Amino acid sequence: xxxxxxxxxxxxxxxxxxxxxxxxxxxxxxxxxxxxxxxxxxxxxxxxxxxxxxxxxxxxxxxxxxxxxxxxxxxxxxxxxxxxxxxxxxxxxxxxxxxxxxxxxxxxxxxxxxxxxxxxxxxxxxxxxxxxxxxxxxxxxxxxxxxxxxxxxxxxxxxxxxxxxxxxxxxxxxxxxxxxxxxxxxxxxxxxxxxxxxxxxxxxxxxxxxxxxxxxxxxxxxxxxxxxxxxxxxxxxxxxxxxxxxxxxxxxxxxxxxxxxxxxxxxxxxxxxxxxxxxxxxxxxxxxxxxxxxxxxxxxxxxxxxxxxxxxxxxxxxxxxxxxxxxxxxxxxxxxxxxxxxxxxxxxxxxxxxxxxxxxxxxxxxxxxxxxxxxxxxxxxxxxxxxxxxxxxxxxxxxxxxxxxxxxxxxxxxxxxxxxxxxxxxxxxxxxxxxxxxxxxxxxxxxxxxxxxx
Length: 454
What we know:
The chain has helices spanning 2-11, 340-346; strands at residues 14-15, 18-19, 26-33, 36-38, 41-50, 56-65, 68-76, 81-90, 100-110, 115-126, 133-137, 142-148, 151-157, 165-171, 186-190, 193-196, 204-207, 213-220, 225-231, 237-238, 244-248, 251-260, 265-268, 278-279, 284-288, 291-294, 299-306, 311-315, 324-330, 365-372, 375-382, 390-395, 410-413, 423-425, 434-441, 446-451. The chain has 454 residues and is mainly beta. It has three domains: 23-126, Immunoglobulin-like, CATH 2.60.40.10; 133-231, Immunoglobulin-like; 237-451, no CATH class.
């Protein structure tokens, strides 16, 4: 009877996967295409794997070159026969040789831990060749890195105007808006080292000591290392390292009081050189990302940089006629390419327009600069894109002196102003919210208004 019980025990040794039978997976066919590829590209693994008696569970792979695992992963298998068709990204690693032998090691397993291995040989990995790379900082600055003639793996950007510390990625390709195109190779931070990354990867960080700005950036794409060379500011240079902090209108500004000279060109560094910045076009001409020409009269000014609005404006102590007019009221704003939604996300309730009836600070009003005797120019965004309304008047100083009523002027160009007293843009007028340039001629009491693109 005891012998019968033991027999029944072994006969019932089954589980949810069926009878326990010893078996191992079988690689019926395996192929990797292309056999010759560039590191940084994808290859395709196709395989047919079966098991005569037990359900398959997984296929692990690792790609090895020069005794080092380049990448690895696991593919889930289902059933007792499985057709694998898997794209696998093969990154470029530091110090990777060119035209290197590559091996793919495969291990297939079933649910009872039966396993078999397979080795794919005859693969060749090549180092990618880049004509150039792009240094893209997290602040949006972009610099071209060109390969050295003596070493195609070393890329360098010179005559840069970057901050002394910044986070960055290195990209093979850019989109039209100068953002990174991740269809090309991208390098960033992986565990504190430079490595290939995908779209969700982190930026690397670098610091240039004992300098006012970073002038040279060098990247070694063989060793995966970066270095910088710094320099110091000259008398005609502008960088945020010289700016202070000031809260105005509930917003944080960087400010600098200094003498600016008429028609002098100034080099701007770091965030001040961001192509997305708008320099007040009534006072500056943007010559390039890193150079601006001052248009105002020589004198002492305060430069205001708003890192959220991404604009640079100038102010003077006690601005007054005849050098200036002051447009004060509701619904004007210094030009910016940042949207009201983006501004409001940082400063709740704030919009692209910011003026009010008052002269307490630079954001209450906008300056119109005298461009010739009796002629004044001011460029500003109006009306508000949230309410499409503006109501304002130019004044000769901050004491509400000599207001300029709309009924005293003839308007030419864009016919957006109504009213005899305030200069009004009605909310139902259909006026486009845009940047407009107002040219006020007090000699003949005319105002020309033109829409401008900045």
